[in-house]
Amino acid sequence: MRLVLIGVVAGFFSALFGVGGGIVIVPLLILAAGVPAHPAAATSLAAIGITALAGATRYGFEGHLDVGHAALVGLPAAAGAVVGATLAQRLDPRPLTLGFAVLLASIAVWLLV
Amino acid sequence: MSAGTVALALLLGFGAGILAGLFGVGGGILFVPTLVGLGLGQLDAEATSLLAILPTVVAGTWRQRHYGNVRWRTALVVGLASIAGVEAGVQIATELSEVTLRRLFAVLLLIVAVQLAWRACRPTTYASPS
Fold first, then answer.
1. A32 shares contact with chain B (CB less than 8 Å)
2. Cβ-count burial of A69 within 10 angstroms (0-12 exposed, 13-18 middle, 19+ buried)?
3. Chain B interface, best mutation among A104, A109, A112, A113, by max B CB count within 10 A
4. Is the pLDDT assigned to residue B129 strictly greater than 60?
5. Any CB–CB contact under 8 A between A24 and chain B?
6. Is the dihedral of CA B11, B89, A29, B61 positive or negative?
7. Three-state SS for A93?
8. CB pair distance less than 8 Å for A16 and B38
9. Residue B39 Cα, gap to closest chain A Cα (Å)
């Protein structure tokens, strides 16, 4: 039952913001379902596959899906993510993460103005 | 689409993927602003981001599967239940104005930025990528 609730919340969040929903699923799996951190992250990825497919299909019916742009951005991103995950194991994450937080905050300001 | 736009989209996509893999965040939070930067409206960018996420998610799940980290039954229950939430999310997103949706997304970005900064400053709670 908890897993169903986590799914519903994650799906809502995902469709509203166009994100996978990992920011919601991972902490909920850890805190509400007692799943350890690494399996939670991996399991979240698998669940997001279903969520994102459902969201994209649903938006497709509404005529909001741009398949060309999705492929142009999404396919090189999959290659980039492999590079990033490999780099993550060799670099000190702390200064990088702070830099990334600043980057996200800057994007937020750009979207707001 | 001009050749320049195509090249820019490929480059931004690759860069967003590196950052997503590096910081363990999903690609979506980066894809949406990338797609807005490429000229899509907020709602179209969000919809398209969901499709753009899929290759990264499939590749990531494939890698994690080898480590035995994926709990398939849990993933299936959460994933299938999410479809109900997706329906509600789409309804609300399509009701909201572009400006409101963009502002909400910006607030989400700020929250994630603060959460990441917090995580970086508290190394004991930092979940290093496996």
1. no
2. buried
3. A104
4. no
5. no
6. negative
7. helix
8. no
9. 10
| Statement: residue B50 has pLDDT above 70 | yes
DSSP-assigned letters across all residues of A8-73: HHHHHHHHHHTS--HHHHHHHHHHTT---HHHHHHHHHHHHHHHHHHHHHHHHHTT---HHHHHHH
Query: Domain ranges in chain A?
Result: 1-65, 67-113
State pLDDT tens for residues B3-21.
988 999 999 999 999 988 8
| Window from A14-18, A22-26, B89-93 with minimum mean pLDDT | A22-26
Residue labelled with tokens 């980039």 = A80
Please report residues of B whose CB lies closer than 8 A to that of A91. 22
Tell me the per-residue pLDDT of A70-84, one tens digit each, with 9 for 90 and over. 999 999 999 998 888
Task: Residue A96: list chain B partners with CB under 8 A.
Answer: 22-23
